[in-house]
Amino acid sequence: MATPVTIAVVGAGMRGQTYAACAAATGKASVVAVAEPRSAARDSLAAAHAIPDDAVFDDWRVLVEGPRIADVAVIATQDADHVEPAVALARQGYHLLLEKPMATSEADCERIVDAAEEAGVLLAVCHVLRYTPYSRRLKALVDGGRIGDVVSVEHLEPVGWWHQAHSYVRGNWRREDTSTFMLMAKSCHDLDWLTHLIGRPVERVSSFGGLYEFRAERRPEGAADRCLDCAVEASCPYSAPRIYLPLLEEPDRVWPLSVVTAERSEEGVLAALREGRTGGVCTRVTTTWWITRW
Ligand SMILES: NC(=O)c1ccc[n+]([C@@H]2O[C@H](COP(=O)([O-])OP(=O)(O)OC[C@H]3O[C@@H](n4cnc5c(N)ncnc54)[C@H](O)[C@@H]3O)[C@@H](O)[C@H]2O)c1
Q1: What is the pLDDT of residues 104-135, one digit of tens each?
Q2: Distance, CA 170 to ligand 1 centroid (Å)?
Q3: Among 37, 127, 184, 235, which is least packed by CB within 10 angstroms?
């Protein structure tokens, strides 16, 4: 049997945990190191993969101080925190599996490509839609000429109403200045998918949109800053208790409750909705949370 590929996970949040579990499940890879500042997430991933203490780090910067200890680094930090670890780890000789979006500016994307090319390491970005069975089938049909010449594609990225509130209003992608703009945050998947499917480079992208719903002036009369204190919560479509509490009845479903809390009890979820950022904050609480560019 071939020697398993060894993996260092950088950022043991939602995606880091997922990739670690998926990689280990193939039987062809072994997670041998983790870098993560949050102790609970770090310890949980280290325990799940029996990572020795000397390969457990609280920051990717500490990981790169030492010699290379894995074949591959999975970089699953937040969007604005991809470029620095990607460049440093490439220079250290790690092949990179880098979460999307590569980086939040073209210049930073180029820095990553340059670093990977100079170091001669592989660089793959997690544009996962390409690899779904339906995408592979569609690609084979298009490439095989089954539907003739493709002259136009209609494609919709259906971000549901609660997903929009969860990720792009209350969640990690709520502000352009700490993550990136909507087209990059969500639809980089779609741009990649279209490019992959059609097999021709993009010539022009036009992006426009606006915020209609999540504005302070659309806040209902009597609304509080948090759902748990809110007089109109029962009639609000974005009621956090109504979105998250029923998920306790689906123990096999990890996301999106896992972003709100690791607790799987009503008490734990309510505590997170009372104190946490993702979850219990009114979607119309303040204009400063708007994503400003589409
Ligand atoms: N491919 C996809 O379909 C897909 C889906 C969701 C998210 N993503 C992308 O994956 C990335 C991670 O998203 P997530 O939801 O897992 O976020 P997350 O916030 O759950 O995880 C990010 C982790 O990085 C850690 N981190 C912060 N600073 C660090 C440092 N200095 N060293 C090491 N770790 C550090 C954080 O503590 C956190 O645990 C984002 O870029 C996101 O856009 C991709």
Answers
A1: 999 999 999 999 999 999 999 999 999 999 99
A2: 16
A3: 235
